[in-house]
Amino acid sequence: MDTKEVIISRLIKNLAEVITEDELRERLASGEPLTHYIGFEISGYVHIGQGIMSALVIKDLQALGVKCTIWLADWHTSLNDKLDGTKETAAKIGKGYFTEAMKACLLAVDADVDKVEFRLATDWYSKNMMEYMALTVKVMQKTTDSRMRRSIDIMGRELGDDVEMSSLMYPAMQVADVFYQNLDIVHAGTDQRKVYVIMRDVAKKLFPDKKKPIVISHALMPGLKNPDGKMSKSDPESAIFIHDSEEFIKRKITHAYCPEKETEKNPVLSWAKHLLFWNRTESFYIKRNPEYGGDIQFESYSELEEAFHKGDVHPSDLKSAVINELIKLLKPVREHFAKPEIAAMKQELDDVLAKR
């Protein structure tokens, strides 16, 4: 069993950014009970970069004794006009399909599903709506219009001269969510960085005697077709959704951008690094015909990257190995969604998306 220090060091190494590393180490070493949260819009099918990446972080945090929470942001989904634009649909899909999707991802990485709390924003706001709205107003009082505008790319929006007032409300609510739940560790993808930097600045102003929440950010997975862009739900061929069939996984990876010897902007290598080597304890095998050198195995991502860079591993062989690993990784998810009651929840989302 890994020691606490080994897990902390691995987590920090695998994350894209920690604000700040010293604070995280200090809080984890203190032995005090810590709370974590990651929030999601309920915007469509869960892809592997969203579900599995988040689950891997949660698994490590659980091993460190942190209480983990997944926040189902139905209000934010409605503000951003996702699904059909209503909180009611966002709440229904959030408590149904999305919750089961994230549970399946947690199962896939061997995290403890029963110890993760799922919170629907509406349910929590209704406990004390006046307190929450007062917090949101205080957040807006302690930051500026220009900073809020710069942070709205968290909604997938471009900054323009005219934005809806709801777009400026969105980041303020996201910051207030953290304070309302009294969280210690805030977890997100790197695309959420701006709003959580605002959160830390506001925390210092509103709660000067309290420790600021720590921000941990996992890397965004690049799209399979565009190495410069993140995986996108709007381009299904650039992403693998967690319940994709084996045939879909094979087709998408086979056609992925993967230039020979290129390691800097290579989605297939990036996926291997972040998804398959996060906490790998077994060898990574690449099967090859004897005339091409026979099978080869790697004990670390750095070994794989070096071999690919030297041309010792061909893109087609790398793709085949990644296909096999992803099919194996996502098997528990496919089995979960094969259950009639879970499949029915996905069908509810299918029906909503078909009307968009």
UniProtKB/TrEMBL annotation:
Coiled-coil-forming residues are none
Matching Pfam families = tRNA-synt_1b
Q: What class of enzyme is it?
A: ligase
This entry carries the following GO cellular component terms, namely: cytoplasm
Q: Which Gene3D superfamilies match?
A: HUPs
Q: Which InterPro entries match?
A: aa-tRNA-synth_Ic (IPR002305), Rossmann-like_a/b/a_fold (IPR014729), Tyr-tRNA-ligase_arc/euk-type (IPR023617), Tyr-tRNA_synthase (IPR050489)
EC code(s) of this entry? 6.1.1.1
| GO biological process per UniProt | tyrosyl-tRNA aminoacylation
Keywords, A to Z, come to: Aminoacyl-tRNA synthetase, ATP-binding, Ligase, Nucleotide-binding, Protein biosynthesis
SUPFAM superfamilies for this protein:
Nucleotidylyl transferase
GO molecular function list: ATP binding; tyrosine-tRNA ligase activity
Which chemical reaction does it catalyze?
A: tRNA(Tyr) + L-tyrosine + ATP = L-tyrosyl-tRNA(Tyr) + AMP + diphosphate + H(+)
Alphabetized PANTHER family for the sequence? TYROSINE--TRNA LIGASE, CYTOPLASMIC, TYROSINE-TRNA LIGASE
Family assignment from sequence similarity: Belongs to the class-I aminoacyl-tRNA synthetase family.
| Protein name in the entry | tyrosine--tRNA ligase
Give the species.
Answer: Candidatus Andersenbacteria bacterium RIFCSPHIGHO2_12_FULL_45_11
